[in-house]
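[job 4417] fold queue: 2 targets
>>> target A
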Amino acid sequence: MMNPPETVYTDSHRACCDGATDIRAGAALGHPRVWLEIDEKGYVECGYCDRRFVLKGGPADQQAA
């Protein structure tokens, strides 16, 4: 059984992902750094690692409910 992708909540419409944000050795274990833009859905998913970035207070923010 696969774990669901990691969800990161952010205050910005732009997010940066390198797949290794929480890995001590850094991007050497991740993927190339990409910049992602959150659209009207309120979230964006990284095409490399499937990490989901959710805009706080946006339409996809389940914590706000």
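>>> target B
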Amino acid sequence: MKLALIGSTGRTGRHTLAAALDRGHDVTALVRDPAKIPAEARDRVRVVVGDSTDRTTLADLLQGAEAVVSALGPTDKQPDLHTRTARELVGLMTATGPRRFVGVSGAGIDVPGDLKAPKDKAISWLIRTLGGDVVKDKPAEHAVWAASSLDWTLVRPPRLVDGTRSTAPLEHDAHRSTRSTSITRADLGAFLVDVVEQDLYPRTAPFVATPRR
């Protein structure tokens, strides 16, 4: 599959890039600094240099792509980065394709149909109340995708931690929060590729976590 990948040099994105290449996908990666692409991957990806909120850059990224995968992380310098990126992507993808998008949101946002446990509802309320502008970006991004006609998925992980891939199946569900309260970045990166490969959870924001050991 021809994938357009955003955030491929971040702490989760590097695992997404590795998983996509290991599974034989044709990847075009959007980066700000090409030097940050791992040496072993440089000859295996087409690189587009620029910002995820720039329409011309995104148009170049999307050329020939069958799906867009974003592992873009939050940043205090651009607290509305995900919403601005979503708006540009929705406009381009609606007009010229592709129609499939898979990205990362957060377990703290609420969406229609959720069946969160009481403790998870309380945690979500605290995150929304105390998290500042970066936290507000996530539900705003979801609203942009939900209002579109595209086939989007926004994966909602809990706390991100470093670590290796799990050998057990991950916990994931469209609306029920996971028992586990963390996920390794390696597991999340691979799960993003799983979602696009298997066309999981279209127009849904599933929860996912590394199972407790």
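[job 4417] complete. Note on B: The first helix runs from residue 13 to 22.
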